[in-house]
Amino acid sequence: MKRTLASLDGHRLDGQRALVRVDFNCPVKDGVVTDNTRIRAALPTIKYLRDKGARVVLLSHFGRPKGGPDGKYSLGPCVRELEKLLGSPITFIPDPTAPDAVTVTRRLTRGAVSLAENTRFYPGEETNDPELAKKFAALGDLYVNDAFGSAHRGHASTEGVAHLLKPAVSGFLMEKELRYLGEALGNPKRPFVAVLGGAKISGKIDLVEALLPKVDQVLIGGAMACTFFKAMGLEVGRSLVEDDRVDLAKMLIAKAGPKLILPRGAVIATELTEGITTQVVRRDKVPVGWSVFDIDPATVQDFSERIVHAGTILWNGPMGVFETRPFNQGTLGIAHAMAEASRRGAITIVGGGDSAAAVAQAGVADQMTHVSTGGGASLEFLEGKVLPGVAALDDM
Question: Does the predicted model carry a pTM greater than 0.70?
Answer without folding.
Answer: yes
